[in-house]
Structures are given as structure tokens and as C-alpha cells.
Design goal:
The chain is of the alpha/beta class and 602 residues long. The chain has helices at residues 2-7, 13-45, 55-100, 104-109, 114-120, 136-178, 180-186, 190-226, 229-234, 238-291, 297-338, 403-410, 433-437, 454-458, 467-476, 502-515, 532-548, 560-563, 583-586, 592-601; strands at 362-370, 378-387, 392-397, 418-423, 426-427, 440-443, 520-524, 552-556, 568-573, 576-581. The strands form two sheets. The protein has a six-stranded mixed sheet with strand order 6-7-8-3-9-10, with helices on both faces. The longest helix is centred in the middle third of the chain and has 54 residues, at 238-291. The model is unreliable at 113-131 (pLDDT under 50).
Length: 602
């Protein structure tokens, strides 16, 4: 872990090398102060020869020397701080990018216990590793506080540790040069402090990891609950349900902080006491040497000053050891994000699907599937289905019948557990996910809009789209409401599109899908939460688009008004295709689909 942690600083090695060189300069200047003070005292007390230069000249030279040290110290701090922020930014970017590259199965598992999944049955295809990541909030915590701790450990803390090491090493050398006897007394304190530092650092590493994990859980709870604030207030769950839940997470962090406070207090209090006892011993022993004429007063003061320097450096070194242990604890959580690998669907793997490929039929060939978070609960149990190009298909069925899973497999959010999804004669798993997803667009039940303008939301995924293209797909998607807004396409939609109605969000999602120029359009319950007027506008847009753009359209729905627009209706039950035909054929008496029709008519 230490080697890998240091590798993160490799891109900044030149800047850090310069900063370390400046550190040596500033440290040597600081370490010359005790010698200068001792020499001046001996000169004034008559125990040393006079200076070869005048006192004002010596004062100017010393001031210049100390100014050089101050400049070196300032430059070192600036360079280290900049390097640290660069490392943090790079680390966050790499971890965030890798999280985005994980397949949906990986993200599904972050909301459930991997141990519980493996206890239910056989692990998912490939090794299912317990990453420790548990939620979006935990990922945010790792990208935020954990990355910051790692960056500080590699720059600021490392710089302080090196400065303390140089100060202690050079200081001990200077003390030996002045008096080896007094130095030997001072060094008696080093072994016990070093042993205590090892145990303290190990404990702090463990405590740091537990603390960061607890902070991640706290952030996860707050992120999840704040996103459902309407539900919380509607059910009067603010007091005491949610406040108690959050207080429990906060108390866990507080308890760990108390443990760290006790450990730090006992350690630094103990080392401080040991250092003070060492000063008393040095003063007593050194004073006896001065009385016998074996040591000058100036040298004794220099030794005492160096002892203070070295004592502070040893405390700083132990503190540095502790912060490095914190950094290692935080880095292990960051490395879990950097080391994460997709369960099945890997970006960039496969051969590209040429954009010029003509439309082909889609075939589900004996497809079985179970979600990674529920590997023993099969959702699809041998689906056989052929979808002809250029036609509109509606997929209906009860809750849990596997309708939305069809859409998930088409989009290659997952790969089948067994069986194949074919595009013509080719298994879509042979294509790179990126090239396949250029051909297919999906409009979900609750489309994700971002806090940006309408134009930016439509162009999401196509940042190079022209305003003319954006306006054209908005027209095709029946987004006439945009013209009634004060700022038109530059209107801010708010977080998750909160400023728009459900029907408006759905039509923007359709426009966004069309801008990708897909050959296959999948609408997953796109109108289930809309009123009749909004549903009519959305269905009209989908129907017109399918005809004019010659798209293969798949409507996953349960409303009759949507099902009637399809050329073919596929009725699913218990994870298999139970019936297929036109709406009129399946609506006849005696069919399973007829039961669905009758339930909506009653």
C-alpha cells in the first residue's frame, strides 16, 4: 500500500523534488539558530573569542541568512500545496471515471450486501469481490474526504515528516559535535517514543478506516433521505424517524472521533511529559558540566535548544506516522474504486458495430437472466422472441413478468445468464457496448434530467449537436411547450428536471433519444405516470417518430392506449413469452392478455 501510495505522487516528482530541496535549505537555516545563539552568548560572557566582524554587520548577515530560509520555506509550502491539490484532482478524476465505467450489475451490488448475495447462492459470473462500497453516498465520501486525506498525506504530511526527520538527524549530529555525553542522555528518550509511535500509528490506521467508513454511511443516509424529502414530510417522518436515524450515524462517527481523541491525548501527553523530563535531566547534567568547566554556558543553551527542536521533531514524526497511517486507511478505500472491474459488460471490449449497418431483426434466443444482486431468482426463464426491423412492438405483462428486463438486456446494461440476444446473426455481446448503444436509445419511466438548460439536456451525449438539430428533435417529440417558456431552450430545468411536469420531462427524454439518431427506440413505461393528455402527446410523438424515422420501436407498457398503437403485442408471464400477436388477436376471449384488458376496462 505504501509503494502504491507513493506512486500516486510520481507525476509531481519534479515539483516535489524542488520542494524537498527547499526544505533542506529552510531546515538548515533553522538548525543554525541554536549554534548562533550559543556562540553569541559565549562571546558576550567572555568564554569565546570576539567576532572578526562588527555586531551590526553580523546582525545584517544573520538577517539575510534567515530571510533566505523564510523564502525557501514559503516556496516549499506553496509547491507542496499545489502538488497536493493536483494529486487530489487526478485521484478523484481517475476514481470517478472508473466508477462510471462499471456496468449496471456492479452498481446494483453497491446497494446490497455482497456477502448476503453470495450466501443466497452461487456468486455472479466471474469472481464477486466484496468491495466494501455500499451506496452512492459512500462513493461520494470516498471521492471527497478520502481523496483529500490521501493527497495531504503525500504532500503536506510527507513534507512535514521529512522536515522533522532532517531536523532530528542534523540536530542530533550537532549535539554530538558539541557534547557527546549530554547527547547520550537525550537519546534515552528515543526508543520508548519510537515503540509507542508504532503502536499508535497502527491503531490510528484501523481507526481512520472505520471513521471514513462511518462518514460514508452518514453521507449515504443523508443523500438518500434528502432525495426523498417529499415522502419524508408527507409521512410525518422527520421527527423522530429520520432525525434518529441520522443521529445514529453521526453518533457512530463521534464515538470513533472520541477514541482517536483519547489515543492522541494519551500519546502526545505522554511524549510531551517524557520530553520535559529529558530537559530537566539535560539541565541538571549539563549544569554540572558547566560547573566543572567541561562545557560553556553558550553550548549548554545550544544543547537545550536543540533538544527542544529534536523533541518537537520526534513528536512531529510520530504525528506524521499517524497521518500516514490515516492516509493508508483512506487510500485503501480509494484503491477499491480504482481497482473495481465490471462484472460482465466491459466498455471497449468487442468489435465495433459499423454505423452504416442496415436495420436487422432482433432475436432473443432462449434467454435466461437473473440480476447480480439476486442470482438465485431468475427473472427470464427461456425467452424466445423475434422483433422485425421497422415495426412497433408492445411488451405487456404483470409486475415482475420480465418486461423491463428485456429493455435492460437490449441496452446491454447486463448480459444474459444463458442464451443469446442476436442482431441479425450476430450476438450483441460481440459488439463493443459503446457502438451498440449508438444504435439503440431508451426512454425510461422516470427520465434523468440534469440541472442545466433544456438545450443542454437534449444535447446530453451529443455535445457537438447544432441548435438546428436540437430544435428539430424537439419538434418531432412534441416539445412545443418550450416555446411558451420565457427563456425557451435556455430555460433551466432545475435538479432532476423539477421545474417541468412529468409529460414535459418524458418528451424531452424522447427528444434526447432522437438526437442520438438511433435505429432502435425502447420506451420503458414511458407514459405510465402521465395523465391522459400528456400520455396522448407522448404516444403521438412516438408513433410519428417510428413511422417517419423508420425505427424499430419497443414499447414496454400496460396501458391499453399505448398497447393499441403497436403492430405486435408480446404478453409476458413468469419470465417467458406467453402470447404474441396483434392487439385484436390477443384481446379475444380466452387469452391471458384478455384478462389484462378486462382488468383495465372494469
Amino acid at each position: 500500500e505504501v509503494r502504491r501510495l507513493l506512486q500516486l505522487a510520481r507525476p509531481e516528482r519534479k515539483t516535489i523534488a524542488i520542494a524537498i530541496s527547499l526544505l533542506f535549505v529552510s531546515s538548515l537555516v533553522s538548525l543554525s539558530i541554536p549554534l548562533c545563539i550559543g556562540r553569541i552568548i559565549d562571546i558576550f560572557s567572555g568564554q569565546a573569542n570576539n567576532l572578526p566582524i562588527s555586531i551590526p554587520t553580523a546582525a545584517v548577515l544573520l538577517a539575510t541568512f534567515f530571510a533566505l530560509g523564510a523564502v525557501a520555506s514559503v516556496a516549499r509550502l506553496i509547491l507542496m500545496r499545489i502538488s497536493g491539490q493536483r494529486i487530489i484532482a487526478r485521484l478523484r478524476q481517475q476514481a470517478y471515471t472508473n466508477v462510471l465505467r462499471q456496468d449496471i450489475g456492479w452498481h446494483d451490488l453497491q446497494g446490497a450486501s455482497t456477502k448476503a448475495v453470495t450466501a443466497e447462492g452461487t456468486a455472479v459470473r466471474g469472481a464477486l469481490k466484496d468491495t466494501g462500497v455500499r451506496s452512492t453516498g459512500d462513493i461520494i465520501s470516498r471521492l471527497g474526504s478520502d481523496a483529500g486525506i490521501v493527497g495531504d498525506s503525500l504532500t503536506r504530511d510527507l513534507s512535514d515528516g521529512l522536515r522533522s526527520l532532517v531536523t532530528a538527524t542534523v540536530g542530533i549530529g550537532a549535539m554530538f559535535w558539541i557534547s557527546s555525553k549530554v547527547t547520550g542522555v537525550m537519546l534515552l528518550i528515543v526508543p520508548p517514543i519510537s515503540i509507542a509511535a508504532v503502536f499508535y500509528g497502527r491503531y490510528l490506521k484501523k481507526l481512520s478506516r472505520e471513521t471514513q467508513k462511518a462518514v460514508g454511511e452518514m453521507v449515504a443516509v443523508s443523500e438518500e433521505r434528502l432525495s426523498a424529502i417529499k415522502t419524508i414530510q408527507a409521512l410525518n417522518a422527520v421527527e423522530p424517524t429520520e432525525t434518529r436515524r441520522f443521529a445514529g450515524k453521526v453518533d457512530k462517527v463521534l464515538d470513533l472521533a472520541k477514541k482517536e481523541a483519547w489515543a492522541s491525548g494519551l500519546f502526545f501527553g505522554g511524549t510531551g511529559f517524557a520530553g520535559n523530563m529529558t530537559l530537566i535531566a539535560l539541565l541538571t547534567y549539563g549544569g554540572s558540566l558547566v560547573a566543572r568547566g567541561e562545557l560553556t554556558v553558550g553550548n549548554l543553551i545550544s544543547l537545550l535548544t536543540y533538544t527542544v527542536y529534536i523533541g518537537g521533531s520526534l513528536v512531529s514524526l510520530t504525528s506524521f506516522f499517524g497521518t500516514i497511517m490515516k492516509g493508508l486507511g483512506a487510500s485503501s478505500r480509494i484503491f477499491e474504486l480504482l481497482d473495481a472491474r465490471p462484472l460482465t459488460v466491459k466498455l471497449g471490449v468487442g468489435r465495433p458495430l459499423p454505423v452504416t449497418t442496415p436495420p436487422r431483426r432482433i432475436i432473443f434466443d432462449n434467454v435466461h437472466f437473473a440480476y447480480p444482486s439476486r442470482p438465485n431468482s431468475e427473472v427470464l426463464r427461456g425467452v424466445n422472441l423475434t422483433i422485425e426491423p421497422g415495426m412497433i412492438y408492445s411488451i405487456a405483462g404483470g409486475s415482475g413478468s420480465g418486461k423491463s428486463t428485456i429493455a435492460n438486456l437490449l441496452e446491454r446494461f447486463y448480459d444474459p445468464t444463458s442464451g443469446r440476444v442476436l442482431y441479425g446473426d450476430d450476438n450483441i455481446a460481440e459488439y463493443t457496448p459503446e457502438s451498440w448503444r449508438q444504435r439503440i436509445a431508451i426512454v425510461p419511466q422516470d427520465p434523468a434530467l440534469f440541472s442545466a438548460t433544456i438545450a443542454e439536456n437534449i444535447a446530453y451525449g451529443r455535445p457537438d449537436a447544432t441548435r438546428a438539430e436540437i430544435e428539430e428533435v424537439a419538434r418531432l417529440a412534441n416539445c412545443g411547450f418550450i416555446q411558451t417558456l420565457p427563456h425557451g431552450f435556455e430555460t433551466q430545468v432545475g435538479a432532476r428536471g423539477a421545474q417541468l411536469s412529468g409529460g414535459q420531462r418524458q418528451r424531452l427524454a424522447i427528444a434526447r433519444a432522437l438526437l442520438q439518431k438511433p435505429r432502435i427506440l425502447v420506451c420503458d413505461e414511458a407514459t405510465s405516470a402521465l395523465d391522459a393528455a400528456s400520455e396522448s402527446l407522448v404516444n403521438e410523438a412516438i408513433s410519428n417518430i417510428s413511422q417517419t424515422q423508420q425505427l424499430t420501436t419497443i414499447l414496454i407498457a400496460h396501458r391499453l392506449s399505448t398497447l393499441k398503437t403497436a403492430d405486435q403485442v408480446v404478453f409476458m408471464e413468469d419470465g417467458v413469452v406467453a402470447e404474441q400477436g396483434t392487439y385484436d388477436e390477443l384481446a379475444q376471449e380466452g387469452t391471458r392478455f384478455n384478462l389484462l384488458v378486462r382488468s383495465q376496462l372494469l
